[in-house]
């Protein structure tokens, strides 16, 4: 690996991240085409998942792609879907070398893209930037292999881990800088997920604001009985920005019809121990094509996801105030008796955000 290979792959990875949150169910891939030390094409997976990154970069490069090196963050696809394979496009463009970060786990590709390129006489290198690509594409890999999306659990709390006072007041524990950072995080996920209690008490819009985004994440609410206010912001805007309601069996028919009338999508889920099964919830969301889900609580939903070992990343915003034991805890009842029963996460980042502290953790 040369320094230039690493540099161009780092650029391809940064381009790929531009597609996060808008290209599901496809992976967010980046591609850079270089000919004699000059970048002649750049691309990333476009909204809705097409065109693919390689196609965008090749169109920009035109004839300059002949004899060039293509840096791509995921193995070029090899199967005919709604569009021809990217491996074929690279071959037709006359690319001399392909540098890929990681092999695709999709069984329709899984090494076949590399084999197609090699049979055409193209030099193929794999593994540069692999760790970063594995992190960026983790949601796509989870959906492909396990049928569920990547889950980020975000909690904004006081120093003593409370998300509201005893009376339910929660706006605002953290400052405007932290709230803006949350909007940026929402924009990089396919969906924002909350529980019914949060939807009822906060009447949230769950949209990305002041970021100039063209495509909003799906708003998902988990409500076993579908007992949500029909005069809420979510109901009023369901035709403009998608709202999905995940509910249990035996829901009142009038509620179902009323919510369908708002334009919301209803997704039946299994119930386990008296509440929506976190495992089935995420299986249903994965089946709808979601690869990255941003959960913003509340306490019961956070506890449910943690208890099911379905949280891949924790994002905490901690403010410099204490609310006390009477306040609402950030995470509901887990029923742990031993510390060894609690899932451990590894710290990957900590920094100041305005007057608050951001800390990010990933599953061990």
UniProtKB/TrEMBL annotation:
Binding residue positions for Zn(2+): 52, 77, 86
| Pathway it works in | Cofactor biosynthesis; riboflavin biosynthesis; 5-amino-6-(D-ribitylamino)uracil from GTP: step 3/4; Cofactor biosynthesis; riboflavin biosynthesis; 5-amino-6-(D-ribitylamino)uracil from GTP: step 2/4
Which residue range or ranges hold the CMP/dCMP-type deaminase domain?
3-125
Q: Which UniProt keywords apply?
A: Hydrolase, Metal-binding, Multifunctional enzyme, NADP, Oxidoreductase, Riboflavin biosynthesis, Zinc
Q: Name one Pfam family in it.
A: RibD_C
Q: Which cofactor does it need?
A: Zn(2+)
List residues binding substrate.
170, 186, 206, 209, 296
The EC number(s) given in the record are 3.5.4.26, 1.1.1.193
Cofactor, how bound (note): Binds 1 zinc ion.
Show the catalytic activity.
5-amino-6-(5-phospho-D-ribitylamino)uracil + NADP(+) = 5-amino-6-(5-phospho-D-ribosylamino)uracil + NADPH + H(+); 2,5-diamino-6-hydroxy-4-(5-phosphoribosylamino)-pyrimidine + H2O + H(+) = 5-amino-6-(5-phospho-D-ribosylamino)uracil + NH4(+)
Q: Enumerate the active-site residues.
A: 54
**UniProt: NADP(+) binding residues:** 156, 172, 198, 202, 298-304
Q: Which family does it belong to?
A: In the C-terminal section; belongs to the HTP reductase family.
Q: What is the documented function of this protein?
A: Converts 2,5-diamino-6-(ribosylamino)-4(3h)-pyrimidinone 5'-phosphate into 5-amino-6-(ribosylamino)-2,4(1h,3h)-pyrimidinedione 5'-phosphate.
What is the protein name given in its UniProt record?
Riboflavin biosynthesis protein RibD
Q: Which organism is it from?
A: Ruegeria pomeroyi (strain ATCC 700808 / DSM 15171 / DSS-3)
Highest lineage ranks of the organism? Bacteria, Pseudomonadati, Pseudomonadota, Alphaproteobacteria, Rhodobacterales
Gene encoding the protein = ribD
